């Protein structure tokens, strides 16, 4: 039987952090919206009802929240990269994608976003 691939999506995680390089961005927290997609083999989880056989999205989310709320970032690229490290850290993860929106970063635009992806390399 082919492996079952599970896709976890954490949608519109709304947090506040210091993000940017302008003086008002350095002094005031801003909203960011985080969307994360994580792919992993769910064979163990689909054949049991044991949390140890699944990827715990609550644990991942708590780590993302702690990172974002307890740090300062100049670049959206750096913030997105650090969240991607958390999303892809577990050995079972084959693919992860993180997109972070910074609402109202540009005049006349709803937001600016940056997306980074992780793909496990086959040996």
General form:
elongated
Arithmetic mean pLDDT = 93
Percent in helix:
25-40%
Please name the fourth-level CATH homologous superfamily. Answer: GTP cyclohydrolase I, C-terminal domain/NADPH-dependent 7-cyano-7-deazaguanine reductase, N-terminal domain
Main β-sheet description: 5 strands, mixed
What fraction of residues sit in β-strands? 35-45%
Order of helices and strands: EHEHHEHEE
What Rg do the Cα atoms give?
A: 16 Å
At CATH level 3, the topology is GTP Cyclohydrolase I, domain 2
> Could you say what the CATH architecture is?
2-Layer Sandwich
CATH top level assignment: Alpha Beta
Kindly state the number of beta strands: 5
Low-confidence runs: none
Written description of the protein model:
By secondary structure, the chain is of the alpha+beta class. The chain has a single domain, classed as GTP Cyclohydrolase I, domain 2 (2-Layer Sandwich). The chain is 28% helix and 40% strand. It contains four helices and five strands. It has a five-stranded mixed β-sheet with strand order 3-1-2-4-5. A hairpin with a 7-residue loop joins β4 and β5. α3 runs antiparallel to α4. The longest helix has 13 residues. The protein is elongated. The two termini are 22 Å apart. The model has no long low-confidence stretch (mean pLDDT 93).
Q: Helices and strands in order, then pairings?
A:
Blueprint: E1 5-19, H1 23-27, E2 30-41, H2 43-46, H3 57-69, E3 72-73, H4 76-87, E4 93-103, E5 111-119
Parallel strand pairs: 1-3
Antiparallel strand pairs: 1-2, 2-4, 4-5
């Amino acid at each position: 039987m082919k492996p079952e691939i599970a896709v976890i999506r954490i949608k519109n995680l709304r947090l506040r952090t210091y993000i940017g390089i302008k003086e008002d961005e350095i002094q005031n927290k801003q909203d960011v919206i985080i969307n994360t997609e994580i792919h992993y083999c769910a064979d163990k989880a689909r054949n049991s009802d044991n949390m140890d056989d699944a990827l715990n999205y609550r644990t991942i989310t708590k780590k993302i929240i702690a990172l974002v709320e307890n740090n300062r970032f100049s670049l959206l690229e750096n913030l997105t990269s650090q969240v991607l490290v958390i999303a892809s850290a577990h050995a079972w993860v084959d693919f992860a994608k993180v997109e972070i929106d910074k609402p109202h970063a540009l005049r006349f635009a709803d937001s600016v976003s940056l997306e980074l992806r992780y793909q496990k390399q086959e040996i």
